[in-house]
Design brief:
Layout (H helix, E strand, L loop, with lengths): L1 E7 L4 E6 L2 E3 L4 E3 L4 E3 L2 H11 L7 H14 L3 H4 L48 E6 L3 E6 L27 E6 L15 E5 L4 E3 L2 E8 L12 E5 L8 E3 H5 L18 E2 L4 H6 L4 E6 L4 E6 L14 E5 L4 E3 L2 E3 L9 E3 L4 E3 L9 H4 L3 E2 L1 H7 L10 E2 L12 E4 L2 E4 L9 E3 L18 E4 L8 E5 L24 E3 L8 E5 L12 E2 L6 E6 L4 E8 L8 E2 L4 E2 L6 E6 L9 E10 L5
């Protein structure tokens, strides 16, 4: 398909082609010292008459853009990360296999995915397509990030063995969120989507404690194991970070083996770096990976800026990074870290010390979430003997070695400061859903927003990103179809419409350098003509492969004579490698 063309006559004109169609872009004449606008329409008409391969759609594009510009004023339409949608997803497979690959796992590498499922074709990363109606936004994505993912290891440094797979999401999220009169607990699986199209999971990992005996000798001598789903009793829901963080990659995500769904339970560290959210990346050349840390959580040495939108919860409310206006109603107030409203039940801050009492009660907020009656609205809420959790010194031995059920293993090990007599906005910033009502740069009129929570040292702080319940009414999920009336705001990946940058001419040699946005896996052919006659186009050099792991490709016409009165160029995408659709 022809994607771009340009010519020079000691000056330079540029315009664009896409899908064998001429797309009007700003046209300038470049002289040695100044830029002078020229008549774009007359040039387009001339090319349309002489090039039967092209169809003039400049006026149609202009009309579509005006509709789009009106639509993308809402942050839920404009915040999606699409810069790298034409780049293939990559992983580092292990500490010894440090070259990134676009299909995985390689032969001979452990694969514990169900049925041995593997990523056998390359897949494009981040968000691929955005459409909207008046009520909803529709996002298409493969669920794979554009930063290099992996490796995924175990506590002893071995391979985790579960691999991410392209998911082919088509997700609908409401554009009109509303607070829920009755709060709903998050289900298992996906409860939101990051702006890079990767899944968001709850802070838990679907496991909860189950007693061995329905009549334990005493509440402080409870024994049992953690069970998944219905195999657990639900009262003591396990914290994913407490047990699974060792399997997270440097981007702070991992995936189960049954479906390969790459997802975050907590802050998306690498995405935060990509979005410029007060993060520092340190490159380890030996392992070919980056690690990500907070630049300065206090803002003392490096000034902080307001965190960007990182994702959207399935109730339609935004999820920000950890930094926001100190005064929730004043956009001129200093930026600082948002403080979580949760603390460990370790005897401090007015909490019960579970290390002394055993897990014989739930904090008030947890009792409400897990359905434990609390008619007197007390905190903490006493449990029946059959509901008690294991002592914090309890140990079991399994295939992975000895497991200690320490304080912090379960969400019920935390109390909410608002239930301990402290005030939101003074002692802490975020409510029990891990958000607040506030103004933000994207919502100057105010919104409810969730925030990533970290401690003063920059470490993840419970509940990390979202509490155990939606603040709003969940109104999102997989969309089997998209209304035909939906407006398309973006279509990237293999459908990217490439754009030619302003070419440059070497003043001595006459060499013309042409650079264009490209689709990884694509092959391009540069052609030139001195007359624009249909039969006058000739190839310039060999076909050019798109530059790997980037969105720009360059080709040259060496020694193009400056004595020519004019010279035209067009670039075709001649082929595209197989990919996972």
């Amino acid at each position: 398909m022809p994607i771009a063309a340009s010519f020079y006559e000691r000056f330079l004109l540029s315009f664009g082609f896409a899908d064998r169609s001429l797309t009007q872009v700003p046209v300038v004449r470049i002289s040695t010292a100044c830029f002078v606008p020229v008549n774009c329409l007359s040039l387009n008409q001339r090319l349309f008459r002489r090039s039967p391969r092209s169809t003039l759609i400049g006026l149609l594009v202009a009309g579509a853009l005006s509709t789009t510009c009106r639509a993308i004023a809402q942050p839920i339409l404009s915040s999606w990360f699409t810069n790298n949608s034409a780049v293939l997803a990559r992983v580092i497979q292990s500490p010894s296999l440090t070259n990134s690959v676009t299909i995985w796992p390689s032969a001979g590498v452990m694969n514990n995915n169900t049925g041995g499922n593997a990523q056998s074709n390359p897949a494009y990363s981040d968000v691929q397509r955005i459409r909207c109606t008046a009520t909803d936004v529709y996002i298409n994505a493969n669920g794979l990030a554009s930063y290099t993912m992996g490796p995924w290891l175990t506590a002893n440094g071995g391979l985790f063995g579960f691999w991410p797979l392209a998911r082919d999401y088509q997700v609908r999220i409401t554009r009109n969120p509303a607070p829920a009169a009755t709060k709903i607990r998050h289900p298992g699986g996906m409860i939101g989507m990051m702006v890079n199209g990767v899944a968001i999971y709850d802070l838990g990992d679907a496991f909860s404690f189950k007693q061995n005996s329905p009549t334990p000798p005493t509440p402080t001598s409870v024994a049992g194991v953690d069970g998944m789903g219905a195999a657990g009793e639900g009262w003591w829901s396990r914290d994913a970070l407490a047990v699974e963080v060792v399997t997270f990659d440097p981007g702070y995500a991992h995936q189960p083996g049954n479906n390969g769904q790459y997802h975050y339970h907590a802050e998306p560290k690498a995405l935060r770096f990509q979005l410029g959210d007060n993060m520092t990346a340190t490159y380890d050349a030996a392992r070919n990976i980056h690690t990500y840390t907070e630049t300065d959580p206090s803002g003392t040495l490096t000034p902080l800026h307001h965190s960007p939108i990182l994702g959207w919860c399935y109730d339609g409310y935004p999820i920000y990074g950890p930094y926001a206006f100190s005064d929730p109603t004043n956009p001129n107030s200093p930026i600082r870290r948002m403080r979580s409203g949760f603390v460990l039940r370790n005897g401090q801050n007015g909490t019960q010390d579970l290390r002394m009492t055993g897990r014989v009660s739930l904090a008030k907020w947890a009792a409400q979430v897990f359905g434990v009656p609390n008619p007197n609205a007390v905190n903490p809420v006493p449990l029946a003997a059959t509901q008690c959790g294991p002592p914090t010194t309890y140990k079991t031995t399994g295939p992975g070695g000895i497991t200690t059920y320490s304080l912090g293993r379960y969400s019920g090990d935390y109390d909410y400061l608002g239930d301990l007599g402290l005030t939101q906005g003074e002692a802490f910033d975020l409510d029990s859903y891990n958000g607040r009502n506030c103004v933000t740069p994207e919502f100057p009129g105010g919104t409810y927003a969730y925030f990533v929570s970290i401690d003063a040292n920059g470490n993840p702080a419970f509940p990390y990103m979202l509490g155990k319940q939606y603040y709003g009414t969940p109104n999102a999920g997989n969309a089997a179809t998209v209304p035909v009336s939906a407006v398309e705001l973006f279509n990237g990946g293999p459908m990217t419409k490439e754009v030619l940058e302003s070419p440059s001419v070497h003043p001595v040699t006459g060499t013309v350098t042409l650079t264009w946005s490209s689709v990884e896996g694509g092959t391009y052919q540069l052609e030139a003509s001195d007359t624009l006659e249909p039969d006058s186009w000739v190839p310039v050099g060999d076909p050019v492969r798109a530059t790997p792991n980037t969105t720009r490709t360059t080709s040259i016409d060496p020694g193009a004579p400056l004595s020519l009165p004019r010279r035209f160029y067009q670039i075709w995408r001649t082929s595209l490698d197989p990919y996972d659709p």
